[in-house]
Write a structure and sequence with these properties.
12 helices
C-alpha cells in the first residue's frame, strides 16, 4: 500500500472528490461505533429538544450516522482510520512512519474543520437580517435528508455538524487514546494504550477553522503523541489508496477497535466505557465551541443567539421570539 504524502490542497481536493463520487455507492455494514452507540453518545452530549435531537442522533436516520452510509463509509479520513503506527521499541521496521500516520490523522481533522466552516456559513440562513428566526428554514415537520444538497438551513447545519462530528467520535473508538493494552507483551497484536482522559488537543476545530490550513496543520501535528495509533482498515486513505491488506500493521478489526463492548480491545478493563466517555466529552466541547463561534461571527441584532435557539428547539417560531 502506497503512502506518498500529498500537498495539503491536493489532499483536500482528493477527499472532496471521493465524497462526491462515492456518495451513492452502497456499502457493507459499518465496522465503527454502531449507530446505536453514536446515538447514545450524541444524546448524552447535546441538550436539545426531542425532534431536533432525533434528526441529529437517530441510529439509522440521524446526521451523526450519515458518514456510515453509501460511499462515505469507504473513506478512511471520515472515520479516522489508517493512522496506524508502532515505535521501533514495539515493532522493528513498522511499515508506516510516525509522520505518515500523523498525516493520515490530520486528513481526518481536516474533514471536521471543513464541515465546521460550512456549518457556520449555513447558520446564516436560520434568521433574517434583523435577528428574527425564519420559520421556513427551521421547520422540522418533515425529516431532513443527508444528501449534500441545499435544504432548509437547519437541516444544512445539522448535516455539516453531524458529518464533522462523526469521525471525532470514531477516533475514541478507533484509536488507543483513552484505552489500555491487555496484560502481557505490548506489540503488533496488542498496541500500547495511552489511557488519556482529556479530549484530544488536535481536535481544536473551532480555532483551526479560523487559521490557514498550513498553520493549523503544523499546530495539530505537534500535538500528536508519538505512540498514538488508530487501526488499519480496508477503506480509502487520504491519498485515495485502498488498504487491501493490513498484514504487519495494527488492524482496526482485530487489534484496536472498541466499536462495541464485545470487541477484543473493549474487554480490557473499562476500555469501552472510556471510549464512549471520551467521545461524549468531545461532542460536548464541539457543540460549545460551535455556539461560541456563532456568537462571534453573528453578533448584530442578537443573530447568533437566535441561531443557537433555532438549533436547540423543535419549534423556534414560538420558542425564540
Amino acid at each position: 500500500m502506497s503512502h506518498r504524502l500529498l500537498p495539503s490542497l491536493t489532499r483536500t481536493t482528493a477527499v472532496g472528490a471521493f465524497v462526491i463520487a462515492l456518495a451513492a455507492v452502497p456499502s457493507d455494514p459499518a465496522l465503527a461505533f454502531t449507530g446505536g452507540n453514536h446515538e447514545t453518545i450524541t444524546r448524552a452530549a447535546l441538550p436539545w429538544e426531542p425532534a431536533t435531537l432525533f434528526e441529529m442522533a437517530d441510529a439509522r436516520e440521524g446526521a451523526i450516522n450519515a458518514n456510515d452510509h453509501g460511499g462515505y463509509f469507504l473513506l478512511g479520513p471520515l472515520h479516522c482510520d489508517n493512522a496506524d503506527y508502532l515505535a521501533p521499541r514495539y515493532a522493528e521496521d513498522y511499515p508506516r512512519s510516525r509522520d505518515e500516520a500523523s498525516t493520515e490523522l490530520l486528513a481526518c481533522v481536516r474533514t471536521s474543520v471543513a464541515r465546521f466552516r460550512n456549518a457556520v456559513r449555513a447558520a446564516d440562513g436560520l434568521v433574517d437580517v434583523h435577528g428574527k428566526v425564519r420559520a421556513d428554514q427551521s421547520d422540522l415537520s418533515s425529516h431532513c435528508t443527508w444528501k449534500e444538497t441545499p435544504d432548509r438551513a437547519k437541516c444544512d447545519v445539522l448535516e455539516q455538524l453531524g458529518r464533522g462530528w462523526h469521525q471525532l467520535q470514531d477516533f475514541y473508538s478507533h484509536s488507543n487514546w483513552s484505552d489500555r493494552a491487555a496484560p502481557g507483551p505490548v506489540g503488533l497484536a496488542d498496541p500500547p494504550g495511552l489511557a488519556r482522559t482529556d479530549v484530544a488537543p488536535f481536535f481544536d476545530i473551532r480555532r483551526y477553522s479560523s487559521m490557514k490550513d498550513a498553520d493549523w496543520t503544523r499546530d495539530a501535528r505537534a500535538r500528536i503523541p508519538v505512540d498514538l495509533t488508530t487501526g488499519c482498515y480496508s477503506d480509502l486513505d487520504s491519498t485515495g489508496v485502498k488498504a487491501e491488506d493490513c498484514a504487519g500493521r495494527v488492524t482496526h478489526n482485530r487489534d484496536l477497535n472498541k466499536d462495541t463492548a464485545a470487541s477484543r480491545r473493549s474487554k480490557t478493563g473499562d476500555n469501552f466505557s472510556h471510549a464512549t466517555s471520551g467521545a461524549t466529552a468531545e461532542i460536548t466541547r464541539q457543540w460549545n465551541d460551535f455556539k461560541a463561534e456563532l456568537l462571534t461571527t453573528y453578533p448584530n441584532d442578537g443573530r447568533g443567539e437566535q441561531m443557537i435557539c433555532a438549533l436547540v428547539h423543535d419549534d423556534p417560531r414560538t420558542s425564540c421570539p
